[in-house]
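sorry for the late reply, my laptop died twice this morning and i had to redo everyting from scratch. anyway the thing you sent over, i finally got around to it. pasting the sequence first so we're on the same page, its 369 residues, then the predicted structure underneath. double check i copied it right bc i was rushing
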Amino acid sequence: MKLIRIRAIARKESLQIVRDPLSLVMAFLVPLFLLMVFGYAITFDIREIDMVIVDQDRSSHSRDLTRAFEASGYFTIGAVLDRTAAIDAELDSGRARVAVMVPPDFSRKILARRTAQLGVVIDGSDANTATITQGYLSGIIRQYAHRLLPGGVDTPIDVRTRVWYNPELKSRNFIIPGLIAVIMSVIVALLTSLTVSREWERGTMEQLIATPVSRAELIIGKLIPYFAIGFIDTVLCIVMGTQLFHVPLRGSVALLLTLASIFLAGGLCMGMFLSVVSRNQLLSSQMALLSTFLPSFLLSGFIFAISNMPKPLQAVTYAVPSRYFVKILKGVFLKGTPLSMLLTEMTLLTLFGVVMFLLAHSRFKKRIE
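ok and here's the structure:
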């Protein structure tokens, strides 16, 4: 593999980008596919919210409260902890979305008919889920308190709730990072979905086949200009999100851009693969739209919680790369999540990029069939 050949292909592709602005056409199949996926995937009923309980009382009353949360059907108790310090790791890693802290004097105050306090911490990175969770908690605790003291007595429990990561529950704080993932997944696939098919339609592929440029050199050379465009678009989206929409960026910018580069590379390779397979610009653009926009919007966890989808669709989401990028963006933006907690997402995005590159390389043939 020679750098001079890759540079020549990259320069040629850059000139084509400047001279040939693309106009994309949407097909009639998109509304049908949207209707099908919306019908199966979307539900606004939030159930089985992951919860951890810090039970420092260890009494029959605290155990009854835990059973009340489980019996409601809205919460899944992941762990009963002894220390409040363990809450950070549970919420940061995403193993829990809400934590309830029962103080040591909880049972004693209830028996004395004094106001017992509960501490509640909610993951606010998804404002809609956090708001609904807060309502579920209030209702369950109120019913539990009325069972303790029937007859209309005032609630003997004082619930003090704090929302982490998104204290004001602003929906744009979780929508903007998700939108970046959706937009970039569509853009990068569309950018490269037309490259090889355009060469075949214009009749210039025969000239490239006659050159000593290898398949890998040709693919890499074509990807470089589009990677630069995608990277600049990502930076502009991040700047717009933080400056125009005032979304907090609590994590490392360098980490965010590094992981975004891995995601961009995978999306570009996917678009290249579609272009190699189709050899037709219209078909390749339609395939790129169908394989990126809809899965990214519906099956990535951007708007709709994956845990609320049917089990078959949950399995499908593991093949959607934007699922991992959405988690990266929300984690770095809202939680300041470090690299150590994003290694799984980084590994899977890298694996996706490698697989897409190998598929594009294997399907691209330097010969006229």
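Residues 215-243 form the longest helix (29 residues).
thats about all i looked at so far, will dig more tmrw
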